[in-house]
Amino acid sequence: MGFVDYEVKGNIAVITINREKALNALNSEVLDDLEKVFDGVDVNTVRCLILTGAGEKSFVAGADIGEMSTLTKAEGEAFGKKGNDIFRKIETFPIPVIAAINGFALGGGCEISMSCDFRICSENAMFGQPEVGLGITPGFGGTQRLARTVGVGMAKQLIYTARNIDATEALRIGLVNQVVPQADLMATAEKLASTIAGNAPIAVRACKKAINDGLQTNIDDALVIEEKLFGSCFESYDQREGMANFLRKKDDPAKVKHVDFKNE
Ligand code: CAA
Fold first, then answer.
1. Using 50, 70 and 90 to split pLDDT, how confident is the model at 256?
2. For the chain, does the N or the C end have fewer beta carbons within 10 angstroms?
3. How far apart are CA 65 and CA 217, in angstroms?
């Protein structure tokens, strides 16, 4: 659809922001398309998503500077809310979302990648929050998620200086989990997504929710969140079969088999 492609590959799917001429910059239309695509994902069949950008140069080069250049204060705030609402939808999406960063991830590009569960990137990737050089703050969650991802001091330094960093530095500071050659990026992302999709979907979703919700509160309340989600996995087919498979293996190693988790 429009500026966002969606391709289902078995039980994983790839969402591609496709506005290559503008280095996949996020204007209102792209944001709307993105939201529609996420709303249309069938989370009962798709178990893990990959988010990437079209082409070999850019993941997302930020929010659209042309569109933002004439905004009033009120319009600026509304544009920030629009991005924040969609990125929060990605962050809290029931199934994991892996960012496969294939080039520039600047401003809103770095921000959308941080709303994903984790990030892998190609060797040519470039990250940064260049907003203060444009006279604005990061406005799609960057002031909040960068500090939570790489620590307050590093986030402040990167945001105040508006300095871009390469893939090696992004790996060093923990912004990305893995750097691979551009040619291997999607295969690596798909392999990771397939590994995740092969595990019990109810449990994977519960882990995402436990980590996300727990990080928003104190450790005592967070552990209660974990207990409830832990409990919610029991009595499911996947829990019974996953544990029965382990016990069968103990009795007789010849009985080792792949568990076909059913999401029920
Ligand atoms: N918004 C709108 N258009 C953009 C864009 C953006 N963020 N980034 C790139 N483009 C467009 C360029 O205008 C250009 O279009 P034309 O061909 O029509 O002129 C096209 O993409 C190709 O870009 P360049 O010619 O600039 O390519 P380059 O290789 O010379 O440079 C770049 C690449 C370093 C990424 C450079 O394009 C750049 O600095 N882009 C802006 C990056 C940026 O500042 N992003 C943050 C935006 S603010 C933000 O995101 C706020 C927020 O938090 C919500």
1. low
2. C
3. 35
pLDDT of residue 248: 86
Q: Closest Cα to atom 2, ligand 1: which residue?
A: 64
CATH homologous superfamily for 4-197?
Answer: 2-enoyl-CoA Hydratase; Chain A, domain 1 (3.90.226.10)
Per-residue model confidence as pLDDT tens digits over 172-191: 999 999 999 999 999 999 99
Domain boundaries, the chain: 4-197, 201-255
* pLDDT in the model for residue 263: 86
pLDDT above 70 for 1: no
User: For the segment 59-109, what is each residue's pLDDT rounded down to a tens digit?
Assistant: 999 999 999 999 999 999 999 999 999 999 999 999 999 999 999 999 999
Backbone angles phi, psi at 249, to 5 degrees: -60, -40
- DSSP annotation of 244 reads H
The token pair at 147 is: 């500090």
| Ligand 1, atom 27, residue with closest C-alpha | 23
Residue 259 pLDDT grade (very low, low, confident, very high; cuts 50, 70, 90): confident
Q: Is residue 35 among the annotated active site residues?
A: no
Among residues 187, 17, 41, 39, the alpha carbon closest in space to that of 105 is found at 17
Domain 201-255 carries which CATH code? 1.10.12.10
Q: Give the ranges where the chain is alpha helix by DSSP (H).
A: 28-40, 65-68, 73-91, 108-114, 142-150, 152-161, 167-172, 185-198, 201-215, 219-233, 237-251
Q: Is 169 known to be catalytic?
A: no
- Which one of the listed residues 67, 111, 226, 227 is annotated catalytic? 111
